[in-house]
Amino acid sequence: MHVTSKYVGGSASAGRTISSSITDHTPIHTHTHTHTHKHKHTSGNSTSQHHSFIMHSKEHISHDEYQKTADWLRSHTKHRPLVAIICGSGLGMLADTLKCQDSFDYSDIPGFPQSTVQGHAGRLVFGELKGKSCVCMQGRFHMYEGHSLIKTTFPIRVFKLMGVETLIVTNAAGSLADGLQPGDIMIIKDHINFPGLVGLNPLCGPNDEKFGPRFPAMSGCYDKGLRSLMMEIAKQMGVAGLVQEGVYAMVGGPNFETIAEAKLLHRLGVDAVGMSTAPEVVVATHCGLRVFGLSLITNKVVKSYEDSESVNHEGVLEVGRLRSQTVQQLVTELISTMEINNNENTKIVS
Ligand SMILES: O=P(O)(O)O[C@@H]1C[C@H](O)[C@@H](CO)O1
């Protein structure tokens, strides 16, 4: 494997003591925060959102509806992306690095849900990363916002219909593993979809065979080749000490874990916990997308009654900002280096 890019700011040596600028490759210490949360207000009808959440298992979006949104986007942008990126909390800046941008507020895209979480801009950005056409979700949808899982994962099938072949998911997550510190980056090796295990699964309801089979396999849903490519890239960048593989667990949120829940997750072998990603990956795998996932560890999950620290969303966003450059460099290099099918979809329509 040959990784060609040069990096600015990475130390030559791997290991936890890598030093660079204070905002980048240094270990990050979290604090107990006492800020109150500010939520974005949207024009969405909260009553109908709540209703659709309750009705999640009966809700159905037809193939035509996904197609309509895909067609609308194709007619409004010259880009024909093969790679889609979902930006996690505090990681939206990745989209700003795209060249030749066409961007759309979610509220302007027919059929798109609205993002309501602070730190999620609510914009779809098309553009080029290292000459490769990409689409980036600056803000994702979470179950706890009141979206049904069908709505939460709506963009994935739209991307599929637009010709996307690879999905890169990023998220902010709390660590259970002793070896994962705030500021570390976890390549997702596998996930535990807690809502899915009890039937809160976007694939519930009538199966659309045009997207995939009724009973899709999920073993190997995080592409092995891309995982090892990312490790190689991290070594080349001199940040291998910040990067390791692990298991992500999705919980429903929006509250962070109790100490008893944290102990349970730890005993189950969960390395990092968050409130997203698994439904997106399930839908992407169902429709045959290749998936790569990355968690930015923003906090340690409190798992001792002696510990007086507590986590909050502002702290999560802060670590996202501090590590955004490293995450951007890693993802950019992954896209630049990975093999992408070179069919007519890669071309920009003039
Ligand atoms: O969208 P992600 O999964 O990155 O967001 C995480 C989980 C919650 O939405 C939020 C908690 O701070 O960050």
Explain how this protein is built:
The chain is an alpha/beta fold and 350 residues long. The chain has a single domain (63-346), classed as Nucleoside phosphorylase domain (Rossmann fold, 3-Layer(aba) Sandwich). Helix content is 28%, strand content 19%. The protein is built from nine helices and nine strands. It has helices at residues 46-54, 63-76, 149-152, 154-162, 194-197, 224-237, 259-267, 278-286, 313-337, and strands at 83-86, 99-105, 123-129, 132-138, 166-175, 185-193, 243-250, 272-274, 290-300. The chain has a five-stranded mixed barrel with strand order 5-8-7-6-9. α7 (259-267) links the parallel β7 and β8. α2 (63-76) crosses α4 and α6 crosses α9. It is globular and about 55 Å long. The two termini are 34 Å apart. 47% of the residues are buried. Residues 1-24 and 30-55 have low confidence and may be disordered. Residues 88-89, 117, 140, 142, 171-172, 253, 274-276, 313, 316 line the site of the ligand O=P(O)(O)O[C@@H]1C[C@H](O)[C@@H](CO)O1. InterPro entries: Nucleoside_phosphorylase_d (IPR000845), Nucleoside_phosphorylase_sf (IPR035994), Pur_Nuc_Pase_Ino/Guo-sp (IPR011270), Purine_phosphorylase (IPR011268), Purine_phosphorylase-2_CS (IPR018099). Its EC number is 2.4.2.1. Belongs to the PNP/MTAP phosphorylase family. Residues 83-335 form the Nucleoside phosphorylase domain. Keywords: Glycosyltransferase, Purine salvage, Transferase.
